[in-house]
Structure formats: C-alpha cells, structure tokens
Amino acid sequence: MSETPSNPGIPSELRPTLPTWAKVTPERVQHIQRVAELVAAWGDRMGTPDSELYRWYKAVWLHDALRDADVAELTKWAPSVKGPVELRHGPAAAARAKGEGETDRGVLDAVRFHSVGLAEWDMVGRVLYCADFLEPGRSFDPEARALLAQRFPDDPQGVVLDVARRRLLHTIRTGWTLPEPTVRFWNSLSDSASSR
C-alpha cells in the first residue's frame, strides 16, 4: 500500500505521504494516521514552526513504512539488525528512506530508533517516540496514555522520561535483551531528570 488517505488533522501543504515502497496493512495506515494526528495537535499547541512540523510528519509517515514487510526485505535493508520485526522495521525503513534520498539525519535517526530510543535524538525523535506509543488506538492503559499525550506539549521532557520508563519495563518483562541505544537513552534521560 502506498497511498496516504486524506487526513484532515494535518495541513495539506505539510502532509507527507507513505513512500511508494511502503509495506503496510490498512490497519497500519490507520495507526500511522493516528500518530500524525497526535503530532499535529502537539505541534499546534506548542506553536511549532512549519519547517519543524514537516520534519515530524516525515518521520511519522516513514517510521512504520516497512512494519509489515517480510523478513527478506527487512534483512535486505537492515542486515546487521537481529531480533524480532519490532526491532528491525525502523532500521530497515531508515535505510530504505536514505537510499531513496532522505538526508535529514534527525528524521532518519527518529525512524531508525523509534522502537528503542536514542540519546542523541533531536526533537523529531522524541516526538515520534512518544506519539507512536501514546496514539489513542492502542488498547493498553488508555487512560494513563491519554493523560501523558495531553501533557506532552507542556512537559515534553517529563513525558519522554515517563514513556521511556514504560517502554523499558515492557522490554524487561518480555525478556528481550536491552539494546545498547536503549540503555544509553535511558541513562541520558535519568541523568537529565536528576539534574533538574
């Protein structure tokens, strides 16, 4: 699927689309739309300039572009990344986007590490990381996630820390090995929080 359905929550001049190479189900497109709508609402409340909003939207439309790709395609674009599709689709989508001409390092890092976190992220990575987790279509802990989503424009640093804590605890519960970028991301967030 490569077409992006109309999304009234995002101004048309800022609305990127799914790349033609995307491998996504209709349900995945709905998820991506909800992430984009949340990002649009945050950008509006935060008074984010259009140039930065466009970066946020690009990352949103790219982040799950290969989420429903087969293992062969994920391996082609991210051969050194091991583990389940949850850990491989971001690096594969970032590599494919770069191969197609995307040059914004912040957007590429946001897409590559959106499932695990990255200490060096600029705002686009932090926004995507939180919006992907907090979009309202996810079924787990809806009330707490809605409160975090509402709080993000006023306290992005605090919400990033809370989301990272929740995601890290989930990873530990699943028994997955903590990727090195996740450990560095958590340490950078907890160091910042303790110095506030």
Integer average pLDDT: 90
State the low-pLDDT regions, or none. Answer: 1-8
CATH architecture: Orthogonal Bundle
In what range is the share of β-strand residues? Answer: under 5%
Q: Indicate the structural class.
A: mainly alpha
| Number of separate structural domains | 1
Q: Please count the beta strands (DSSP E, at least 2 residues each).
A: 0
Biggest sheet: strands, sense, closure?
none
- Overall geometry comes to globular
Instruction: Kindly state the percentage of residues in helix.
Output: 55-70%
Please count the helical segments: 9
| Secondary-structure element string | HHHHHHHHH
Can you tell me the CATH superfamily? Hypothetical protein af1432
Highest-level CATH class: Mainly Alpha
